[in-house]
Amino acid sequence: MDAIAVVLGRPRELSLQQLQLADAPDWLTVDIEWSAISTGTERLLYEGRMPSFPGLGYPLVPGYEAVGRIAHAAPHSGFRKGERVFVPGAARCFGEVRSLFGAAASRLNVPPQRVVAIDESIGERGVLLALAATAYHALTIGGDGQAECVVGHGVLGRLLARLIIAMGGDPPVVWESNPERAAGATGYRVIDPATDTRRDYRLIFDASGDAGLLDSLIARLAPRGEIILAGFYSAPLTFSYPPAFMREAAIRVAAEWKHEDLLAVRNLIDTGRLSLDGLITHHADALSAESAYRTAFDDPSCLKMVLDWRAAP
């Protein structure tokens, strides 16, 4: 079988290519309906700024946020043909074209343990499960999950705020310095950090990905307060030691979600406690991927760009 896929031949060289799918009889074949563009990791891959990871290199198929229908399910896989699933990348089915991420394609072969069945009603919003699971994982690894402050009002920051409320916490304050990103809050306040006078936050979640913010965040902590780094950072992180020393500050890194995090957020969505509404702002036909990627990276009004693969050959 063949698939049409987004291929980064090298930094800033993006194209659509027809690729041969490697045979994997014990895996699932999924016809992708929608995939999303990450303005974090995919932008780093596009610009050639992604830190080195095992298996990373060019050419590669990017993407880790996809929804599709199962076209073939191996016996005893636990899935059935026609079922709608979320696919978090790592397909590894394109031969010499690397697919450490690998979800931006019209068809994928993936191991059953990598996918999660989703309700029909979720539709294209299912691409957001990866970021929802990232936020959920960050909230469950440190402190009591009752963050008082979230930095950044992109999709990850919005999901962190929504999950804090969904999990029984008080609404956090969300910092956003870009006025174009300040709108869209649901049950919490968004403020410019320059107007915030607090210096006693017990727990701050940084969803900005800005490697230069640590000193300013440490200055806002209460004694023995904690910062959880929930974004992805391409530059080295540094901070001035004396202010952190005076506060006995803790800094924790939230790594990639686990499969159980995907299941947990799916349950929160299915029970109506977590909404994914209002987070997808832009759509494009997958065959226009090159211009869609430019919009996703360069247009500040674009929270999440979704590629529609349903018309792909």
From TrEMBL:
The keyword Endoplasmic reticulum does not apply. CDD domains: 2-desacetyl-2-hydroxyethyl_bacteriochlorophyllide_like (cd08255). Keywords: Oxidoreductase. The keyword Methyltransferase does not apply. It holds the Pfam family ADH_N. Coiled coil: none annotated. SUPFAM superfamilies: GroES-like, NAD(P)-binding Rossmann-fold domains. InterPro entries: ADH-like_N (IPR013154), BchC (IPR005903), GroES-like_sf (IPR011032), NAD(P)-bd_dom_sf (IPR036291). Residues 25-118 form the Alcohol dehydrogenase-like N-terminal domain. This is Chlorophyll synthesis pathway protein BchC. It comes from Bradyrhizobium denitrificans. The lineage of its organism: Bacteria, Pseudomonadati, Pseudomonadota, Alphaproteobacteria, Hyphomicrobiales.
